[in-house]
Design brief:
Elements lengths: L2 E6 L8 E6 L2 E8 L2 E6 L13 E3 L2 E3 L6 E3 L5 E3 L17 H19 L8 E7 L2 E5 L5
Bound molecules: FE2/S2 (inorganic) cluster.
């Protein structure tokens, strides 16, 4: 085990996330009603920073395409939302050819993104010593 102090408990309010870095390792620390958890801070879909997402209970939602993971296990709970419903309405003032091109472009992106596999997040052991939050960098699983 190789525990490293990464944050102070008071820096992470209940229901929030915090990004920390130790060397090249990016970690997302979560406070779930006073219990701290740590997962890799890169989404298993397209690498968005999970700590910029939201936390509801033990479910963390990616800020980019809304994939959801269980913060306690790192397991993928639901995959990315790739449809941009109503995107062409945002171009309502544009000529039909522009609206059509925008719709086709986003449909093409969504099609390619469907082929990207979304992986679980690595999980790190966490312990608290006084006000310090420590993470076991060698313990990712
Ligand atoms: S990058 Fe997280 S869901 Fe796409």
């Amino acid at each position: 085990m190789s525990f490293v102090t990464v944050a102070k408990a008071g820096e992470i309010a209940p229901g929030t996330l915090k990004h920390v870095e130790v060397g090249e390792t990016e970690i997302c620390i979560a406070n779930v009603e006073g219990a701290f958890y740590a997962v890799g801070d890169r989404c298993g879909h397209e690498n968005a920073r999970m700590s910029r997402g939201s936390l509801m209970g033990t479910i963390v939602t990616c800020p980019m395409h809304a994939s959801q993971f269980d913060i306690t296990t790192g397991k993928l709970m639901s995959g990315p939302v790739l449809e941009l419903e109503g995107i062409t309405e945002k171009f309502a003032g544009c000529p039909e050819s522009i609206r059509k091109a925008v719709g086709e472009m986003f449909a093409g992106i969504a099609e390619e993104q469907r082929l990207i596999r979304t992986h679980d997040l690595p999980v790190y052991e966490v312990k608290r010593e006084g006000s310090d939050i420590l993470v076991d960098l060698n313990g990712a699983h």
